[in-house]
Amino acid sequence: MESLLFPLLLVLLAGFMFFSMRKQKKRAAEMQDMQNSIQTGTRIQLTSGLFGTVIDSSSSDYIDVEIATGVVTRWNRLAIMKVVHTEDAAATYPGYVPPSAPLTADGDEFTTIEGSVDYDDDLGGGDSDATLRKDQGGSTPDAEK
Fold it and tell me: Acidic residues bias located where (predicted)?
């Protein structure tokens, strides 16, 4: 019985290694196909985390990516991590505010979950209700009286 245990463990280990290498090769082939199928106008994410739009994909070695309006950079095709789908592309642009954000603009007043703050009070240059704590360079309310 002990003589069969060691060869059985070796067979299991070899099977595990075979299947894990097979899965890794399949994943690498899918990544290669995705990188080669990139076309002009596709929104992508690079391995550095940078989002951009493909401007020129005519070369087999590199692509030109627009990362901001008028800013085009050249990247190796292997730097493409994933294609950003059309419905998710809006979230990759600077200044994007998701629709479920806790702050909503209502004129000059921003409403938060806790309450609202009117920012016009401090813009007039007159008396402000804002007071600094002692550790911020202000004085205590008792010292002002």
Answer: 114-124
